[in-house]
């Protein structure tokens, strides 16, 4: 989102995502024609079970913003950027029996620095790099194939994911530093950036990687430490949080029980059974969500790894994976948009976070945010919540 100052002076917030721009006045009169170029494209209907991945987007790689296609809003000066991004490429959350994949997360360092809190001695005193060690005995001693190989925790940002955020940081630098002179070339004051992440490791690392290349080679004064703000997990607002808002569980149970969703599950049950037999997921825990199967398959797809096979030589196929993606997309669209309960669910699930962004805008307009120019929030799509079996 961009907060802009127009002449004549009014302030609007513009939401930019892909090529979609919508301007909404947050103070002063309507901006008039400036916002009429706005077009909303995200509400395209999704035909039942049969839709393609939207043009130009694949789950594995979103497109990057670019200085060459960035067009400034006429008669307006950029005042504040609020950037909300998802984490990059990650490892699977679900570990299947007989794992034969290898994931690497130790080829790129993030900036996990230790600073002394006392401002008079604020200099960096050392840096740490967290290293995941998959012990050599993994696969032996009764722990056979309990974890995949390599150097990653489950659900962690991979080296590929770090590079995605380096690239994003670099593209943002070309826009906000080089083209617009909006952000300074060298970061001299940490108050310019507000960085918030969920407590989830991959979202912290994504923001670190992004800022790491927005200000590459540490073009940051040596004593500038950028605070990484996180809320305690129990009151996190950047994703649906049933622990903080129990009504979310009721919403999910109602959505799952609906005739439309039950028809969908029934229709796709043979595929689910076949894939569970192939992957050795002999569990009834995840029969109301496609997200666990998706997690196993799409992470492999994004890395060109072969799909799982079972001991009878039956393997998941590319066609299976495409149908799983359709099913997961259906599930997601149903949950967030198409169910009669979606409006309440999204309000309860994400309204609080949007309220925080709105307050930040208002606080900025009122002159209460000091030197703030860039607010970065990094989040996962959802926590690990099957549609019905919510803890
Ligand atoms: C802290 O950093 C400043 C600026 O780089 C440097 O001049 C100073 O010597 C450093 N202090 C210590 C204790 O390392
Ligand atoms: C392998 O998967 C196929 C297809 O789901 C299934 O029919 C078969 O029983 C599975 N074999 C084993 C050993 O689980």
UniProtKB/TrEMBL annotation:
Pfam families per record: His_Phos_2
Any GO molecular function: phosphatase activity
Domain of life: Eukaryota
UniProt keyword annotation of Calcium present: no
SUPFAM superfamilies listed in its UniProt record: Phosphoglycerate mutase-like (SSF53254)
Keywords recorded for this protein, A-Z: Hydrolase, Signal
Signal sequence segment: 1-23
Family of the protein in this entry: Belongs to the histidine acid phosphatase family.
Protein's name according to its UniProt entry: Phosphoglycerate mutase-like protein
Organism expressing this protein natively: Linderina pennispora
